[in-house]
Known about the structure:
Blueprint: E1 3-4, H1 11-17, E2 22-23, H2 25-28, E3 36-41, H3 47-58, E4 65-70, H4 82-88, E5 89-90, H5 92-95, E6 100-105, H6 121-134, E7 135-141, H7 143-153, E8 157-172, E9 188-199, H8 201-206, E10 210-216, E11 220-226, E12 231-234, H9 244-254, H10 280-296
Parallel strand pairs: 1-2, 1-4, 3-4, 3-6, 4-5, 6-7, 7-12
Antiparallel strand pairs: 8-9, 8-10, 10-11, 11-12
Helix pairs in contact: 1-3
GO cellular component, one term: cytoplasm
Subcellular location: Cytoplasm
Function: Transfers an acetyl group from acetyl-CoA to L-homoserine, forming acetyl-L-homoserine.
Amino acid sequence: MPINIPKELPARQVLEKENIFVMDDERAHTQDIRPLNIVILNLMPDKEKTEGHLLRLLGNTPLQLNITFLKTVTYQPKNVNPSHMEDFYKTFAEIEERKFDGMIITGAPIEHLQFEDVQYWDELTEIMDWAEEHVTSIMHICWGAQAALYHHYGIDKFPLEEKCSGIFSHRIFNGEHNIELLRGFDDAFIAPHSRFTNISQAEVDAHPDIQMLAVSPEAGPFLMMSKDGKHIMATGHLEYDTVTLKEEYERDLNKGLSVRIPAHYFPNNDPDEQPLNYWRSHAHLLFSNWLNYYVYQATPYEWQ
């Protein structure tokens, strides 16, 4: 997939080294096809790493994408250069008149807060409500998935006794292989999780508008989808690269948090050993299936 991003975005150099097909505005304007417009609300603290995680996966299908990064105005991130946000991110006011084919709302390390206590909650709910009419399909990740379940469906999160961190095995729920989002998935697959809260599988199963797609015996519900395909909710992080859980574990320790070693992650459960990536292929499948079946084939050629 040729992915159209700003020419000076730092993630571009990383992606090009990995042979991910990126395209700048000059070349994109010579393409005589209709690109898909994707907006990413990046709530993660390390903006540049998250940009790389997501763009790596979005850049792996034969579609051309125009990427817009969205920031909040009610909260200013502390872990990124303000000039980066100024150069590469838009505010909601700058894009609210536009229509987008797809949207990604990332996670955020704020699970300890009630949703209404999050500084940018009112702004986020305004954006989520706007997306109902202005976006064809939205993918919500980790805390973003929990926020969507709460705001759209009234399903709240609950705290865990200890952090759910590691790579966990999942099974397709009730053999739902006919669901296009899961096309090509193995019966069992691995995905990373990193959070202090969870959601009730019973509440999701009981909701008439949500379909459970994949569950982990250890980590709980993972993939869910609204029955109209509008909302994809993933409580884990298939987009993470190999060392992300290691970096988060070290970050938590440096903060003085009492956290266990990420489960099933380090070889021999030894943090000094280099972890291996067992989830990369399913990460690419999830994003390419979403883009193909729920964005490209569902979005109108011309938004009215």
